[in-house]
Design brief:
The complex is a heterodimer. In chain A, 41% of the residues are buried. In chain A, α3 packs across α4 and α3 runs parallel beside α5. In chain A, the strands form 3 sheets. Chain A has a 6-stranded mixed β-sheet with strand order 6-7-8-3-9-10. In chain A, strands 2-1-4-5 form a 4-stranded antiparallel β-sheet, covered by helices on one side. Helix content of chain A is 34%, strand content 31%. The longest helix of chain A is centred in the middle third of the chain and has 16 residues. By secondary structure, chain A is of the alpha/beta class. By secondary structure, chain B is of the alpha/beta class. Chain B is built from 16 helices and 6 strands. In chain B, β5 and β6 form a beta hairpin. In chain B, α10 runs antiparallel to α12, α10 packs antiparallel against α14 and α15 crosses α16. The chains are: A alpha/beta, B alpha/beta. Chains A and B meet through β6 and α3 of A and α1 and α8 of B.
Amino acid sequence: MDAIALENVSKSYDSVTAVSGVNLRIPQGAVLGLLGPNGAGKTTTIRMVMNILVPDEGSILVLGEPVSDKTRDSIGYLPEERGLYPRMQVRSLIVFFAALHGLSEAEADRRAREWLDRFELAQWSEKKMNELSKGMQQKVQFIIAVLHRPPIVILDEPFSGLDPVNAATVKDIMLEMRDQGSTIILSTHRMEQVEKMCDSICLINHGRSVLDGDLRAIKHSYGKNTVDIEFTGPDGFLTNPAIASVNRFATGVEAKLKPGADAQEILKAAVQSGAQISRFELLEPSLNEIFIEKTSHA
Amino acid sequence: MRKIWLIIKREYVTRVKTKGFVIGTLIVPLLGIGFTALIIFLVGHQSNQSLRFAIVDNAGGIAPTVVGSLDTKLASGQPMFVVTETIDRPASPGAVQDELRAKVISGALDAYLLIPKDLSQPTELHTKNPGNYALFGPLNAALNQALVEVRLNARGIHVDDVRDIVRGADLQIIKVSKQGESVEKGQTMGVAVALVILLYLSLLMYGIITMRSVLEEKTTRTMEVLISAVHPFELLAGKILGVAAVAFTQFFIWSLSLALLATYGAALSAMAGAGTTLASIHIPAGLLASACVYFFGGYFLYSSMFAAVGAACSNEQDAAQLQWIAMAPLVFTMLIYSMVLNDPASRASLILSEIPFFSPLLMPLRISLQTPPAWQIALSIGLLFVSIVAVIYCSAKVYRVGILMYGKRPTLPEMVRWLRHS
């Protein structure tokens, strides 16, 4: 049984089509990266999965059941737009939301204390939300998304605003939940996070699913068509006709090859031009590159 | 149901704990009691002060008549006017006046009255405190009476005969109701108008509280998490019922303090020696109960509209501009309520008080003035209930769409489209 199954789902507001004919199956225990440019239809899709919006067409199953108010309780949600009652005490706020998700208040309180400890927020638990720093508020919001141990968690930009230590804690908890069988949907613009965390992706553009499936398989299907070159010195060799496009970084470039091009030719040209090469690696394209390719010429 | 209950509880607990609620609920009645006590005390205290004055009678022979007609008593039973001396036709008026003026300045006298030689000229009262109108009114009346008496006597007419002839009818208003008859001194009108104003202010205040509460969830983006946990209708119902529970608590405390005030207020005013109309104000329990029913009916009707307005807006400014939608019928009621006040049994009053948006204010008004037939009350409650259901149904639809919308303030036609769309 799939955790979530969307079949031919469409939704439009007035004259704007937000989502059109999306098909998506997310197996239980998967970590899916939900990608797409701003305004592509990700939030609409998420809201339909949570029965906040009703699709115009198509069907959505959550854990094998059609979406309803009941299936909503199987989902934990960290929205992109953060914010909680500013004048409520931290722990009573967490208990309130956990109780809304069906936990008894005693159990919710017990778990809230546990989680606040884990995020080193224990001494803030009696404070009001608006007395907390942004990062701390973010952690409270993350706790609210996962406290009721939902089988499905939807996290929208979970790492934004977190320092590296807290980001690592959040990442560890995500992996822990995956190991316990939870299904995680990670919606983010940070492609390197998706590459590290997700085993499958769904890329939405203009309301349509333009790419979905196993991340490794997708990358593999592109073949090793990218060279990662770190160098100093002249960069004239980058105009070589074998190179289709160049993505520049501080220490070097990521160059995409034209179909059938030979990477050795480029290496030769680079050496001849006098560039000092410290790294030259033939790679599958990065997700970043795939994202740009799939969304830029649509 | 459990989720609605949780939302009611949160709304109630967080709202009751705020400083605003504590101040509004506990301190306002205390202040009310305090002010009433203060006014009773001051009125009693002030009227205990007699006006001590001397009379300089330049015409001669008038002063005794004036003194005779100065029989007004203070609330405490003390005479209002104390004439310390009368000077009949002084030989040197200037010197006498200088002497009296000095006494007034030193405080030995409050004033002196100067009766002119020619009675067609005005009589003068020289005093340090020319603002004491509570005393000047009765004094003027006494003077008029004394002068009339003097003139009548001069023409050989007996004063008492004239008094008997010109005595007025002294129309007294008696209110007839099923409970019996009671002398009307304006208290029915006072209670009715106070009731309408109280209902109006309460409906407006709690409506706006509901609106801001919804708006706060939107502007803080708490809404994003809330709708991932509950159905919008549960959220709306919990919110409205939660604020209703707060209103109920506040009214309960207020009526309790009002009851205490009514019980002890009479004793208090008696103690202060002020003959007050407080004791004559009697609010029947039936009127109070019907006012409660219509308040909560009106509250559900209006607050659901206010909630929809709150949901449709993204910030305070937009809400302030859009709240007229919910406020308009309420304000309109305040413009037309005097029609009902003047003639509560007229056809216009009957029709207006049956219209659901007006009935929460106008039916209690009619009940307080002249209890209408039971069927009219039953009909208006029935109509009110039906419209509450209809308005909540529509508001919930606007609310459901509105809570997801950010950015531009919607126009009324847009909101109507949301209604049709969802």
